[in-house]
Design goal:
two-stranded antiparallel sheet; 4-stranded mixed β-sheet; 8 strands; MmgE/PrpD family protein; alpha+beta; MmgE_PrpD_C; 60s Ribosomal Protein L30, Chain: A; 489 residues; 2-methylcitrate dehydratase PrpD; lyase activity; 2 domains; MmgE/PrpD_sf_1; 20 helices; single chain
C-alpha cells in the first residue's frame, strides 16, 4: 500500500483523528505518572483473573470452550498447560476478569478496561511465534486502550447507556480493544480505521444478562475477542467501516444514541477532545467491594451508619429493622434497583447486581467480599428476609446534580420508631480513588491462599517493573499455573 492510502478516509473526522492519534502515540508521549498508574491497574486485573479462574461459572465456560476449539498457542490464566487459539483465549480470560465483580471500572463512562485489554493484548503477544513485545510496548498499548473506551462512552453520555438497558462496557469495549491491539501491532492509520469499523459493527450487550445469567460474566469477553478479531483482520488489509463513529446512517453514535433522552443525543467531539492531554486513566477506579460499582455507595452508607451507631446495628437488633429505603440516580437505580423474586434463589451474578442484597449483606456480615457469594452464605434466610425490607427508589433530584451516578441516600427505620439517615456522594475507591498502595494490598489479599507466595512475589515484581521486561511472554508464563477456587461451592 502506498503512503497516501495509509491515511484514514477523513483525517479531520472523529474516526480519522482517533486513528491518527492511536498510530502516532509513542511511549514518550505518555506522562510518567500515567505509566506508573497503569502498572498497578494491570496488577489489579491479574488479581481479578486469578480469583475467578476456577469459580463454578468460569469452569463451565472453560470446559465448553475447550470442547469447541482445538489446542492453540495462547495461555489460559490459571489453567496450567491448557492453551487456546487467540480469539478463544481472549474471550475466556476476559470472562475470568469479569468473573467476580471485583474489577476496575470507569467512573464517568462505565466499562471494565482490564477485562477488555489484558486478555486481548496477552493473546496478541502469543498469537504469532515470531513477534516479540516489550513491557514498554505493552504499557503504551494498554494506556491507549484505557483512553479510547471511555471516550466512546462519553460520546454517548456516559452512564446513559446503562439507564436504557445496554451493557455499556460491551458496547464501548470493542473500540477500546481494537485501539489497544492496533497500537500494539503497529497498524497504520488506515488499518486502524478499518479495525475500529469492524470492531464497532460487532458491539452490543444486553444488561438483562445481570438477572442471573452466566453470560453477564462473558459480555466484556465478546468485546475483547471482537476487537482483537477486527484488528487481526485489518492487519491483513481486510477493510472495515470507514468514519464509523460519525456516519449518520448506520453509524456507531447514531445507532447507539437511538432512544436517548439527552439533547443532543450524542457528543461526537468527546472522542477526540484533548487526546494526549486529558488522560482518562485517571478516572479508572478499583473496586473495594465484590459487587457491581453502582452498589458501592449503598454498602458504604450502611457501613457508615454501623460505625456511627454501633449498638443500634448489633446483630441481635437487626430483626427490629422495619424498612431500609435507598435513593439513587436513574442509571444506578435501573441497574441495581430491581426487586428480587421472593420464591426464586438468587445466583451469585444476580446477588452482585442487587441493591437489596448489598444492603442486607453489609448489615449482617459487615462486608461484601468474595465469601458473601459462596454457597454457604448466598440465600441465607436472614439475608432474604432483610432484602424484602430494602426498598430502592429513583430520586430525580440526584439526576439533577449532574454527574451523580454514585450518590446514594439511605434511611433505616426500626420498630421503636428510631430512624437513621446517611448520604454518600461517592464510595471508597471513587472518592478518594484507591491508591497504588491500596491496590497492592488488595492484590495480596485476593491471591492469598490461591497461589504460593513465591509466585505471588515474582508476578508482583514483574508487573510493577514492566518497563524493564524485554518480552511480555515472561509475564504470561507466570500466569499460566493452576490456582485454587477462593469460595465454597
Amino acid at each position: 500500500m502506498s503512503s497516501t492510502t495509509n491515511q484514514p478516509s477523513n483525517p479531520s473526522g472523529q474516526t480519522g483523528q482517533l486513528a491518527n492519534w492511536i498510530h502516532s502515540t509513542k511511549i514518550s508521549d505518555i506522562p510518567p505518572e500515567v505509566l506508573e498508574r497503569a502498572k498497578y491497574l494491570i496488577l489489579d486485573g491479574i488479581a481479578c483473573s486469578f480469583v475467578a479462574a476456577h469459580l463454578p461459572w468460569s469452569e463451565i465456560a472453560a470446559k465448553a470452550i475447550f470442547k469447541m476449539d482445538p489446542q492453540g498457542q495462547c495461555t489460559v490464566i490459571g489453567w496450567g498447560d491448557r492453551k487456546l487459539p487467540p480469539l478463544s483465549a481472549a474471550l475466556l480470560n476476559s470472562t475470568f476478569g469479569q468473573g467476580f465483580e471485583l474489577d476496575d471500572y470507569h467512573s464517568r463512562a462505565p466499562l471494565h478496561s482490564n477485562s477488555l485489554l489484558l486478555p486481548a493484548l496477552f493473546a496478541a503477544s502469543e498469537a504469532e511465534e515470531g513477534d516479540k513485545f516489550s513491557g514498554l510496548d505493552f504499557l503504551k498499548a494498554y494506556v491507549v486502550g484505557c483512553e479510547v473506551g471511555p471516550r466512546v462512552g462519553l460520546a454517548l453520555h456516559g452512564g446513559d447507556l446503562l439507564s436504557r438497558g445496554w451493557h455499556s462496557g460491551a458496547v464501548q469495549g470493542p473500540s477500546a480493544t481494537a485501539a489497544a491491539v492496533s497500537s500494539y501491532l503497529g497498524l497504520n492509520p488506515q488499518q486502524i480505521e478499518w479495525a475500529l469499523g469492524t470492531a464497532c459493527t460487532q458491539a452490543g450487550g444486553l444488561m438483562s444478562a445481570q438477572f442471573g445469567s452466566m453470560a453477564k460474566r462473558m459480555q466484556h469477553g465478546f468485546g475483547s475477542r471482537n476487537g482483537l478479531f477486527a484488528t487481526l483482520l485489518a492487519r491483513e488489509n481486510y477493510t472495515g467501516i470507514e468514519e464509523v463513529y460519525e456516519r449518520p446512517y448506520g453509524g456507531f453514535l447514531s445507532m447507539f444514541s437511538e432512544g436517548a433522552s439527552k439533547s443532543p443525543k450524542s457528543l461526537p467531539d468527546e472522542i477526540s477532545s484533548e487526546l494526549g492531554t486529558r488522560w482518562e486513566i485517571h478516572n479508572i477506579r478499583v473496586k473495594l467491594h465484590a459487587a457491581m460499582a453502582a452498589l458501592h455507595s449503598t454498602i458504604d452508607a450502611v457501613e457508615n451508619l454501623q460505625k456511627a451507631h454501633p449498638s443500634l446495628f448489633e446483630t441481635k437488633n437487626l430483626s427490629n429493622i422495619t424498612s431500609v429505603t435507598t435513593k439513587h440516580a436513574k442509571a444506578a437505580y435501573e441497574h441495581g434497583g430491581w426487586i428480587a423474586p421472593k420464591d426464586k434463589p438468587l445466583t451469585s451474578t444476580a446477588a452482585q447486581m442487587s441493591i437489596q442484597n448489598a444492603a442486607a449483606s453489609q448489615l449482617y456480615d459487615r462486608e461484601v467480599l468474595m465469601s458473601q457469594f459462596g454457597a454457604s452464605k448466598l440465600n441465607r434466610p436472614e439475608i432474604r428476609a432483610m432484602m424484602e425490607k430494602v426498598h430502592p427508589k429513583h430520586d430525580a433530584s440526584i439526576d439533577a446534580q449532574g454527574d451523580a451516578l454514585f450518590t446514594t441516600k439511605i434511611s433505616i427505620k426500626f420498630a421503636d420508631g428510631t430512624e437513621v439517615k446517611e448520604e454518600v456522594k461517592a464510595p471508597k475507591g471513587i472518592s478518594p480513588p484507591a491508591s497504588n498502595e491500596d491496590i497492592v494490598e488488595k492484590w495480596r489479599g485476593l491471591v492469598r491462599g490461591i497461589l504460593d507466595e513465591g509466585r505471588r512475589e515474582e508476578i508482583e515484581k514483574t508487573v510493577l517493573g514492566l518497563e524493564g521486561v524485554g518480552d511480555v511472554r515472561e509475564l504470561i508464563k507466570l500466569l499460566a499455573g493452576e490456582v485454587k477456587c477462593p469460595i465454597d461451592v
